[in-house]
C-alpha cells in the first residue's frame, strides 16, 4: 500500500510541474516584444605600431627600381624531331638523270606518298594533329609553309637539314640535333606501281608481252643492204611491237634507251630530251634473253623486264626450182619462169614470198612496206650475174621472214651464143655493189627501169 501511494504522489508532482511550466511559457509568449533593439557601439580607435626602420618618403624614393619584378617570356619554338619518321628512298638513278639536279625521294613512315626534290631545294611540310602517329605530311604541291627540309645526297645516305620560321619571320635551327641529321637509303617498295599505266596498260614485268613485243636479234637485211640511210640500225637489236598494220620496229643496243612518246616506243639519245618521258633501258644481251629496266619520269619507279628471243625457222624453199632459167635477153636481163609466168630478172631485183607465191617488188609502196615490216615473208635478192669456170651463175641471197638469217643462192644459167661478160653492179653509196640498198620512193621507181640495149 505504501508503494502505491508513493507512485501516485510522484505522478501528481510531475503533472503539477508540467502545468506550471506550460503556464510560464504561455505568459512569456503573450508578453514578448515585437522589436529587437540593436545597441551601437562606437568604433575602437587603434594606432599602427611604430616600426623600428620607419623612414621618410624621400628616403624610400631614393632607393631606385624595385628589387623584384615580373617579366613576360613567350613560349619558344623548337624544331620537331623528324629523324625517326622521315624515310629516304635514294635519288633518281635513271641513266639520263642530271648529277646536279637528280631528284631525291622522301616519304614518311607508314605513308604511301612519295615526294621528290632536287638537292638543296626546300620540301615544305604541314602538321596534322588528327593523324594517329606521324603527324607531319608533305605540303600539297609543295606550297610554302613555316616548316621545311632540304637534303644533299652522299653515297647511300642523305644529309637532311630542318628549318622553321616563327611569327616574327626568324628562322629557327634549334635544337641542333634536330636541325641536321643523316638518313640511310632504304629500298623502294614500289608503292604506287599499281597506278602506273602506259597506253592504258598497267605497268609490270609483263608489259612488253602485252604490247606484243618480239625480239629477234640483229636485222641482217639492214646489215647487208642498209647503206648510209640506215647505218644507225647496224649492230643493233631489233624489237617489233604491235600486230599487222600496227606493227613498228625499234633498234637498240646495250646501254641504249627507248622513250614512250605518243603511245609508241622510240629510240632516243640518253640526255636532257629523254628526261621528259618514261624510259626503257637495255642493260644486258644474252644468247636467248635481253634484260631491260623501265623507269618512270621522276626515276622513283624501276621495273625490271626480261624479253625472250623469238625464233623464226628458215622456210624450206627451193629457189632453183621456183626460178627456172629460160634465156638471156641482154647482158643484164634474163628470162625466168616464176609462178608459171615468164618475167625478166636483173641484178638488184627483189622477190617476196607471200601467199605461196613469189611477188616481185616493183612499186615504192611495196618496197617501203617491206622495209618497214608492214609486209613480211622470205625475201630473195638478186645480187649479181658472174662467170665462174666458163659458166654463168646468178648469185642471190634469201632472207628469212624475220630477217635474222640469210643464205647465199647460186642458179646456173644456160649459155646461148657468146657468153656475156660478168656484171658488176656498183653504187657509190654502197661499196662493193653486190647488194641492193633499200631504195627510197624515187630510187625504187628507177630500179625497175633497166637498160635494154646490147641485145644478143
List keywords for this structure.
456 residues, alpha+beta, 6-stranded antiparallel beta sheet, 8 helices, 15% helix, disordered C terminus
What's the structural blueprint in terms of helices and strands?
Layout: H1 2-31, H2 57-61, E1 86-91, E2 104-108, E3 115-117, E4 123-127, E5 136-138, E6 147-154, E7 157-165, E8 171-172, H3 176-179, E9 180-184, E10 197-198, E11 201-202, H4 207-210, E12 214-218, H5 220-225, E13 237-241, E14 248-252, E15 257-261, E16 264-268, E17 279-285, E18 289-295, E19 302-308, H6 319-322, E20 324-328, E21 334-338, E22 341-345, E23 350-354, E24 357-360, H7 364-371, E25 379-388, E26 391-399, E27 406-413, H8 441-447
Antiparallel strand pairs: 1-2, 2-3, 4-5, 4-6, 6-7, 7-8, 7-9, 10-11, 12-13, 13-14, 15-16, 15-17, 17-18, 18-19, 20-21, 21-22, 23-24, 23-25, 25-26, 26-27
Helix pairs in contact: 7-8
Amino acid at each position: 500500500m505504501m508503494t502505491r501511494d508513493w507512485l501516485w504522489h510522484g505522478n501528481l508532482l510531475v503533472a503539477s510541474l508540467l502545468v506550471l511550466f506550460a503556464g510560464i511559457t504561455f505568459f512569456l509568449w503573450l508578453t514578448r516584444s515585437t522589436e529587437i533593439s540593436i545597441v551601437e557601439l562606437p568604433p575602437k580607435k587603434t594606432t599602427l605600431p611604430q616600426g623600428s626602420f620607419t623612414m621618410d618618403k624621400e628616403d624610400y624614393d631614393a632607393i631606385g627600381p624595385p628589387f623584384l619584378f615580373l617579366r613576360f617570356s613567350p613560349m619558344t619554338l623548337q624544331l620537331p624531331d623528324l629523324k625517326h619518321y622521315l624515310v629516304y628512298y635514294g635519288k633518281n638513278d635513271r641513266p639520263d638523270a642530271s648529277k646536279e639536279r637528280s631528284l631525291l625521294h622522301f616519304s614518311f613512315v607508314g605513308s604511301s606518298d612519295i615526294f621528290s626534290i632536287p638537292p638543296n631545294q626546300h620540301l615544305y611540310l604541314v602538321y596534322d594533329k588528327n593523324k594517329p602517329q606521324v603527324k607531319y605530311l608533305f605540303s600539297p604541291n609543295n606550297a610554302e609553309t613555316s616548316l621545311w627540309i632540304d637534303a644533299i645526297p652522299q653515297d647511300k645516305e642523305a644529309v637532311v637539314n630542318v628549318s622553321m620560321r616563327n611569327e616574327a619571320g626568324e628562322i629557327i635551327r634549334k635544337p641542333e640535333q634536330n636541325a641536321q641529321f643523316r638518313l640511310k637509303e632504304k629500298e623502294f617498295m614500289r608503292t604506287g606501281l599499281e597506278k602506273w599505266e602506259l597506253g592504258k596498260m598497267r605497268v609490270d614485268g609483263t608489259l612488253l608481252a602485252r604490247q606484243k613485243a618480239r625480239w629477234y636479234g640483229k636485222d641482217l637485211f639492214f646489215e647487208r643492204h642498209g647503206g648510209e640511210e640506215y647505218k644507225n640500225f647496224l649492230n643493233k637489236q631489233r624489237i617489233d611491237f604491235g600486230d599487222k598494220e600496227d606493227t613498228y620496229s625499234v633498234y637498240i643496243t646495250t646501254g641504249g634507251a627507248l622513250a614512250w612518246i605518243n603511245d609508241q616506243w622510240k629510240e632516243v639519245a640518253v640526255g636532257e630530251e629523254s628526261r621528259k618521258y618514261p624510259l626503257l633501258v637495255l642493260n644486258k644481251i644474252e644468247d636467248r634473253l635481253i634484260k631491260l629496266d623501265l623507269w618512270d619520269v621522276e626515276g622513283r619507279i624501276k621495273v625490271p623486264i626480261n624479253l625472250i628471243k623469238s625464233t623464226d625457222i628458215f622456210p624450206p624453199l627451193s629457189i632453183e626450182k621456183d626460178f627456172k632459167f629460160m634465156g638471156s635477153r641482154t647482158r643484164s636481163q634474163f628470162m625466168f619462169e616464176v609462178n608459171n609466168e615468164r618475167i625478166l630478172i636483173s641484178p638488184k631485183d627483189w622477190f617476196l614470198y607471200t601467199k605461196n607465191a613469189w611477188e616481185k617488188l616493183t612499186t615504192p609502196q611495196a618496197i617501203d612496206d617491206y622495209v618497214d615490216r608492214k609486209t613480211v615473208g622470205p625475201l630473195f635478192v638478186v645480187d649479181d650475174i658472174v662467170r665462174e669456170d666458163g659458166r654463168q651463175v646468178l648469185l642471190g641471197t634469201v632472207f628469212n621472214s624475220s630477217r635474222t638469217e640469210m643464205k647465199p643462192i647460186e642458179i646456173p644459167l644456160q649459155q646461148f651464143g657468146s657468153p656475156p661478160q660478168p656484171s658488176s653492179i656498183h653504187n657509190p653509196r654502197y661499196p662493193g655493189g653486190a647488194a641492193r640498198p633499200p631504195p627510197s620512193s624515187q630510187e625504187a621507181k628507177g630500179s625497175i627501169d633497166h637498160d635494154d640495149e646490147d641485145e644478143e
